[in-house]
Amino acid sequence: MRSFSLGDFLSLLSALQWTAVLVVIALGFGAPLALLLALMRTSASRALRWTATAFLQLVQGVPLLGLLMFFYFGMPVFLGVEMPPLVAVGIAMTVYTASFLGEIWRGGIEAVKHEQWEAAACLGLSTWHQFRYVIAPQAFRMALPPTVGFLVQLIKGTSLASIVGFVELARAGQLVSAATFQPLLVYSIVAAIYFAACLPLTLWARSLEVRLNGAR
Amino acid sequence: MALVDIRNVTKSYGSTQVLKGVSLDIKEGEIVTIIGKSGSGKSTLLRCINALERIDGGEITVEGQSVRTDMPNLRDFRQRVGIVFQAFNLFPHMTVERNITLAPVLNKRIAKSEGRALALDVLARVGLADKIDAYPAQLSGGQQQRVAIARCLAMRPHLMLFDEVTSALDPELVGEVLKVMEDMARQGMTMVLVTHEMGFARNVASKIVFMHQGRVWEEGPPAELFANPRTPELQSFIASAR
Asked: Does the predicted TM-score (pTM) go above 0.80?
């Protein structure tokens, strides 16, 4: 047994990198998928709407922990595919992000008045151009505060990856705690680091909300 | 040949029939004003001309082409038939210039400098060249509606539809919009208006169409129609609109 040292603190901070990697993966793959889901949910085709809705219901009805377990422990059993933790966690976080961001963005798209589509159509714009230039920028503005809010959820959610042995901030906390036998101190520091990472985002989301509401 | 030929058009929303066999001709250069009580089907008819609403029966042709919501060249058609709405429907996140040039840039791929010149040209026609860099929220309702008209003009339409374009405006702002429309009428634009502005109908229109219960109840030149309404429905409408 040894006491908590600066080196332990630095190892916690460096584990924060892996938390960041998970967030980047979740956003990098999840955001395009979220856009696709939002478009499917608002499309005229019933088949597309139903497919997207079924996917969302399934994913949102399962806790993130369940998704992580499924992709890490379940995939080898069901599909015979062995996955390294980063891949399994990455897929679970991507699916989770896509479903929640997809719903937030759908709300943004639907909040733009129908007349805006109509006016754009009457100028002879293609459906894609109507969305790309007229609807999406307005939808994005409205969806930005809840999107940033979700980012905070996502950062905290990555801590669940520790369950499958992926060493990010929370898992690093467990390891340091086991080595130093000072769980109260270590976990308090871990919590403070999460808080420090999330606070600016929370403040940003709030200021965006005030600013955008004031603007229109 | 008529620019717009409407033959026996019917249209229902659910079980409510809003157009019950409407026929109407609009010739090039005509200013046709559709009047009538709310619920008479006048806005619906206007929206059918632009394929914003699907018709159930009959036929509408514009420049000899049958108008359908699934017509093959709908996008080209929409650029030839401009429409201005009651609620302006400008794009709030774009400057006046961008509102005007968006469609020409995307559809006709005109250059940026050309777009600026085009925007200045059509803005001059509605008296707002100095507002080219403003955002819609910085303009009054009357100015926004004039920008919406300019946005339409930038597509060089052959026909323009106006759907109660002054109804959402404060009374003191109505005049500036009507003046722009009068100028356009003088320059020979073919125009179809749904309006409650009886003064405009009387003084500028070349033809008045009175709709009642989903039908064209009476039509004719304004002088004749207002002086000698034949039906009691039009008589009471004129009396109440005064």
From this structure: yes
